[in-house]
Input
Amino acid sequence: MSQPERPRILVVEDEPAQREVLAYNLEAEGYQVSRAENGEEALLLVAEDAPDVIVLDWMLPNVSGIEVCRRLKVRTETRTIPIIMLSARSEEVDRVRGLETGADDYVVKPYSVVELMARVRAQLRRTRPASVGERLSFEGIVLDPETHKVLRDDKPLKLGPTEFRLLSTFMEKPGRVWSREQLLDRVWGRDIYVDTRTVDVHIGRLRKALCQHGGDDPLRTVRGAGYALG
Ligand code: CA
Output
């Protein structure tokens, strides 16, 4: 069973030993890791799995890492996924080229695993702050992922575990509209069969919990699309 909330990292590396070392270290950090050994496979996996961060080798057979990066960065659905490029080339000109294709970060081989893990965390801090323990706040609501405490206007809120995960998903991207399927995936995990109506039930509980000391309902139902915070 995959655990919800754990960030998904896609490792794209054609060298099996290097791929495994990377994946092993990322899994040891608690991430869900998927592996691709070439560019085509990477593009397919991104389409079906929407990773939170991609660690992408520059030198790949056929479709190069740069090409993969370029294709992902021109598509609206994938352009916000952070990409960390790996390369054996250390020349400044290549570094610039790597960043010009839209890569979010660039690491030169041989890299230290500790450094790479720090770079991955830095990208997650931007895109999935709760997953790396950052406190989230939105209009008087404060959520602490480490203590699992939620305050609204300084008053503690009682939330069930599912409502907590729902709220942290919303608070990572205020304003974003989440479909029921996306919420199921993120909050319940993809390997569990849950009816989409279950989402509505828990949204109802979350709304009640958020307003337990009064205040307006900060969740918005977007007809035909899903739910959003704010
Ligand atoms: Ca390679």
In short: The longest helix spans residues 113-127. Residues 14-15, 57, 59-60 surround calcium ion (CB under 6 Å). The CA atoms of residues 74 and 102 lie 9 Å apart. The chain has eight helices and eleven strands.
